[in-house]
């Protein structure tokens, strides 16, 4: 990870999922990951539950984009696993009446 970060910092054309992004937009990353999970559900010909992504900033009363330095690949992987498990559990629980429930 450290070597990738160093190489990316000296060569701006290098983009690596293991590189720290100093302005990692977590909101956009989670939305992209949610769409990827929806594509995975469609690929396996499963019903696709709605996935909503909201962000909240505890320092203000407004919805704000969350940006901080982090490795986007790690956040994406964690969110994808959580959403896949949530979709599976939702489909198992509400498989007979998916139209009425999220």
Report on this structure:
48% of the residues lie in helices and 9% in strands. By secondary structure, it is mainly alpha-helical. Helix 2 (26-43) crosses helix 3 (72-93). Strands 1-2 form a two-stranded antiparallel ribbon.
Strand-helix topology:
Elements: H1 2-10, E1 21-25, H2 26-43, E2 67-70, H3 72-93
Antiparallel strand pairs: 1-2
- Main sheet overview: 2 strands, antiparallel
User: Ranges with pLDDT <50 over ≥5 residues?
Assistant: none
What fraction, in percent, of the residue positions are helical? 40-55%
Estimated radius of gyration: 17 Å
Strand content: 5-15%
Cα-to-Cα separation, first versus last residue: 38 Å
Give me the strand/helix succession. Answer: HEHEH
What strand line-up does the widest sheet have?
A: 1-2
Discrete helix count = 3
Structural class: mainly alpha
**Overall mean pLDDT score?**
79
**Global shape:** flat
Q: How many strand units?
A: 2
Key phrases:
mainly alpha, two-stranded antiparallel sheet, flat, 102 residues, 3 helices
Question: How would you briefly describe this protein structure?
Answer:
The chain has 102 residues and is mostly helical.
């Amino acid at each position: 990870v450290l070597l990738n970060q160093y190489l990316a910092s000296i060569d701006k054309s290098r983009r690596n999922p293991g590189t720290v992004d100093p302005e990692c937009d977590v909101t956009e990353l989670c939305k992209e990951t949610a769409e990827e999970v929806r594509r995975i559900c469609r690929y396996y010909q499963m019903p696709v539950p709605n996935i909503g992504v909201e962000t909240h900033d505890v320092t203000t009363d407004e919805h704000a984009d969350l940006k901080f330095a982090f490795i986007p690949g790690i956040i994406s992987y964690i969110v994808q696993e959580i959403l896949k498990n949530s979709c599976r559990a939702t489909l198992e629980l509400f498989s007979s009446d998916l139209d009425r429930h999220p």
